[in-house]
Amino acid sequence: MTERMGVLSSDGRCLQPSPLAARAMLRPAARRLAAVGIGFAGGWAVLYGALMPFGLGLTLGLAEDCFAPCAAGAALGLLLHGLGALSLRSLCQLCALGAAVAARWLLPQKFVSAALAGCGTLTGMALCFALGSSGADLLLYSAADALLAAAIGFGLRKFAPERPGMGTLLVGAAVAAALGSVRWGWFSPGVLACAAAELALCCRAQKFAALSGSAVLGAALCAADPALAPAAAGLGCATAAAAVLAPGRRVETLAAYAGGCVSGVLCVQPPGNAFGLLFSACGGMAVVCLLPGGWLAPVADTPQSGENTPAPARSAAASTRLEAVAQSLSSLAETVNAVYEGLPRRREGFRWVIDNVHDTLCFNCGRRETCWKQEYTATMAGMEALRPLLEQNGSVETAQLPGELSRCIHPAALCAAAGRSFALYRSRKEARIHSEAMRTALTEQYSAVAEALGVLSEQLGRPGDPEPYKSSRVAEFFTGLGAPPQECAVTLDDLGRTHAAVTLPRTRFTPQELAALAGEVGHICRRTLEVPQVLSCKGMTTLLFSERPALRAVFGAASAAARGEVSGDAVQQFCSPTAAQMILCDGMGTGRPAAVDGNLAAELTARLLKAGFTAELAARLVNVALALKSEDESGATLDLISVDLYTGTARLFKAGAAPGFLVHGGRVRAVGEATLPMGVLGGVNGQSRVVHLTAGDYAVLVSDGLLVDGAGWVAKQVELSAAAGDAPEKLAETLVQTARIRAQKTGRPDDITAAVLRLEKSG
Fold first, then answer.
1. In this structure, are residues 555 and 757 in contact, taking their beta carbons and an 8 Å threshold?
2. What DSSP string runs through 718-741?
3. For residue range 67-78, what is the model confidence (pLDDT) as tens digits?
4. What is the DSSP letter of 546?
5. Contact 523, 542 (CB under 8 A)
6. CA atoms within 13 A on the CB side of 235
7. What's this model's pTM, rounded to 2 decimal places?
8. What percent helix, strand, coil does the chain show, rounded to 5?
9. Nearest residue to 487 (alpha-carbon basis) of 614, 311, 636
10. What is the C-alpha to C-alpha distance for residues 150 and 165, in angstroms, rounded to an integer?
């Protein structure tokens, strides 16, 4: 049974989101705010003194979450550009924006419908006004706006502005045209913005983006104000000089850009008219000089569509191959089960023992006709009377033969044949049971490993957003240490968390060295990173760096054996790169046999969790291991809690374990219901649950020996200790010592264990 709980606390109050969750929630708001600004620029921009296509075009082309804010910004830009005067052109544009927004709401992802609605409304209204006294100019300009808007919207649909390419150039052109129409004496904000953007791209060694940007932005400046044509030519020359002569070198790039800008401007007009344009261009260069050095560090050019992208391609190929292997293993398990179900069953019972005695002893006896035909009923009754004797002792003595078989002329041989037949029958039955258990274990392993490979395939298919500049910087850092990495990748996941994976030739690191590496790599990535996880395999060492989470876990555990010093309970407490894991396994019984089962289950579960298996998959594999460990019956409970230290999401899994206790907001509650332990059945009858915890909350896992006197006093003690802020180690010791005293009074000793986890804010 799987239960998923909401984000409410145990006392019904709503939990506060973690900082990363808040950041993830603010990101859509930032996108919409940017869409408003871009839309405002599109509504403000006027090309050649008459055309206004950008507002409608951006509304048609931006993503589903941004088109409405963009339309609102475009409407505001249209109104403010005319200083509040509502002209016929503005009225047509506003109606077209409304029609486009309505069409996109009613028919999402349908570009043609939105384009027909917006452009058709713009042209239709212009036609209505043209039939009056407005003349044909309004119709011609509106038709031109409609065609250009449809082209801009189509380009943005094909090339999203979030990625470098045509979409980014179209948005840049709208902003440049809007700023180009604004002049304050000598100063032109459009020239300043274009110069800053082009110079920044040259400093980052993105020469193709800089050259294409200078061409498009220059054309937008000229279209907004023909007087800026010399400035556009000068910026184009400056970009060409900086991109060709000194890409990626900040000082040299700045010098080349300044020289190209001066030469370009002076070549196309008299020197006296160039000072205003050069003043604006110098303002853009000054803005770039004031930017932090990390923002202008060189990066590789973004590959265009169709170019090779080796790392994502390798990840996609590995993901596909893992998925294929997972499907093969899953189908293999299904095939084995299907074949087994289709085979005829051998229903061998005690009748097989009777038949075997007849075939081996009585078939050649002279009294066969009398015993097995004339007196068949009495003979079968006598044979059936042998069954309890054989099941109890495994053999029959002559004196134990029932009266129906007293007429047998070979009583000793009959007893020997019956004993041999029953032993053979029992061995065949045990072999069949063992074979079925092996088949179940094999298919269960195939299925569990197939699901695990499927999870890994999904993770490889979502490698995160790469950060090539940071990856190159981290690789250079390790190369400078004398350990050039085989692979190095810095990525951002869906919540904006930074992860870094560095693969080196087999290397050993001390804890102090790992801490120092985390500090240096974190400084390069401008993030606070945890001490890396070290994975070693086949002569290679991989360091996995993760951003420091918002929470940290403090563990505590205590245990007391029922008799002697060996306890059947086992505890594992550790932190993986993103989660805190706490495991409690209780072996069946007490003493050394129970300790073997409990420690085996806990150790295997911990290893599987560290390898990336989920709790359910780990439980299935551990269940198989316990079932096949030995001929004796083996079993152990599994009590597991995994807490995401970034979001506070806690996942609990219980298989036969005693109820646990969670403290949230100062209140305690018990979680968990009675189920069967692992190793008893062919499958795992587990129970999963998801809750949300915050800093200051406790999670307590206990063995059933601690609840020998009920769970009420445990809940009260946990709540009191949590209110006092006791350390997890102290709380565990208190629970175990109190439970031991109570167990001695009841006279029912059992292994007693308590494992405690407390969440705190990460320092």
1. yes
2. HHHHHHHT--HHHHHHHHHHHHHH
3. 888 888 888 888
4. E
5. no
6. 39
7. 0.49
8. 60, 15, 25
9. 311
10. 18
